[in-house]
Design brief:
The protein has helices spanning 11-24, 48-66, 80-83, 96-100, 156-159; strands at 30-32, 70-72, 103-109, 117-127, 133-140, 145-148. The chain is α+β, with helices and mostly antiparallel strands.
Length: 160
Amino acid sequence: NVHYLDSTSNLGAIVALLKVTARRKNLCGIAVDYLQLLEVAVSRGDTREREIAKASRSLKRLALDLQVPIIVGSQLNRDTEKRGQPTLADLRESGSIEQDADVVILIHPSKNLDEGEGETKLIVAKNRGGRLSTVDVQLDGPRYHFKAKAKFEEYDAWRN
């Protein structure tokens, strides 16, 4: 049972609508696509980094208030492609994302992604409840679905 909220990009309005929705329906999670598109009320003279930090903190508070996981997409810095594999420092426009998140998974395409299929690494760069690891997956482009290249039992070690 999936509901889409695409009537606004204003963070304050989104938070209010989600709180109302949570009272009416049993939410099992929230996905935000994506952090840098949210419009956040900030003080005059605030930087873009402070705006993103405020959005990150607001979503963290919302997750705690509603007791649901919130998955937030975020851009990486453009320099990442030149250097290779992304790191937490590549999260665009704010270190607050790294600070507020419980888990950060970076998606790093390896080969053939332009053709809609290809090897991809899911890099667990932060995991408050477990270990850090890399999981190799195969992108099924037409279905926009990642398939594990090995059985998930092999990845139990990083989940605990």
